[in-house]
Structures are given as C-alpha cells and as structure tokens.
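re: ur question from earlier - yeah i can do the single chain one, its not a big deal. heres the input i used so u can compare w yours
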Amino acid sequence: MSESNGIIVQTGRGPSIKGTRLTIYSLMEYLKDGWTPKHTAQWFNLTPAEMDEVMAYLKANEAELEAEYAEVMRKAEEQERYWRERNKDRDKLPAKPPSDYRIAIARARLAEIKRERERCNS
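and the output i got, formated as tokens:
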C-alpha cells in the first residue's frame, strides 16, 4: 500500500487516522453507503485536508483495501459463528423474572410468615 503524509498510520486494526481509533475501513463503509466525503468528514470531525488525504489513500490503495477488508469481515463472521455456537445453550436459560414478580413473591412469603407467627402466638 502506498504511504500517506502522516495522517494515515498502520495499526493492529489496519490503516487508521493518526491520533484516533477511526479506521479507513469505517470511512469506506460510510462512503459506500452513499455519504459524501464532506458529510463523512463532518461526522467524524476530520478536516478537509485530512479527508482529502483519506480519499487519495483510498483511491491509491482501493484493490488492496477491498481485499483486506473482505478478509477482516470474513474473520469477524467466523468468530461470530463460533461464539454463537458455543453459547447457544445459554440462550435456552430462563430469563430473570421481572422485578415486580419478585416483589410479589416476597410479599406472599412475608404474608405467610405473618400468618405462621399469628398461629404460634394464638
């Protein structure tokens, strides 16, 4: 991939905007969804110069970025499938009863205790 003027740096998450956690892949998604570069830059608080560099970087590295991003998405989907399969039994666990239900149970138990004490005191 071609180098940028210092705004775009390589991180463990892929090419990112220096000083942020914003990846080029994130910007690619917005641009693919039809956002204009101007609106994308405003949304992510990028200066026009930064967005110009992002656009130049995207154009210069389009094929490599697309292939790399496809691989990132494939791995993410693979991990999601793994964890869904691993946790499928957890989905079958009963949900916690609503809090008002627990209050009703506590009140019923308290009433039962009061009745028992009244019988013992009689």
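The longest strand covers residues 8-11. not sure if urs matches, ping me
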